[in-house]
Each structure stands twice: as C-alpha cells, then as structure tokens.
Task: structure prediction
Amino acid sequence: MTKNRPQAIPAVQLDTDRVLVTEWRFPPGAETGWHRHGMDYVVVPQSTGQLLIETSDGDIRADLVTGVAYSRDEGTEHNVVNDNDFEFIFVEVELKN
Result:
C-alpha cells in the first residue's frame, strides 16, 4: 500500500571534498522516501522525539534526543518518517571517501 506523505525538506549547508552536511526538516507526517546511503554518515538531532524508520526487515521506532549524535554505515537503506505532531529536524553529515 502506498502512503501519500509530504516530503522532508533537505537544505545543504556544506559540501566539500570531505563532507556533505544537510539539514533535514520534517513537517508532521513527512518522509525522506526510500533511499540507500552511499557514504558513512552521522546524524545530529535538533529535535527530541521518535522517528519511524521503515526498513526491508520491518519498521523500527527510533527515540532521538536533541544533540545526541549517532552514526550509520554506507549501504543503510530505509525510509525515515516523522510520526510526531510537530516538525522534526536533524543535521546529517555524510563522510566522503
């Protein structure tokens, strides 16, 4: 079943030969759309709340806290959804090889 969700809004803040830094803003109900990460990356939440992570192995609920970073490896494939009733924001730092 296809869900009709608004899209998360990316804004590139910095793009160098070493990193790509993007701020992601998720209005309530917004999603990134399914994607595969081509680089290792670090996420720094600017909001506290829970995001729905849709994966090929099933859905995961991720509790995120403002300023508490986490990292994932290249190849991560998922769709990130803001199930909160408020805007959710995080900064993603992708590490170029």
Remarks:
- Residues 28 and 84 are 6 Å apart (CA to CA).
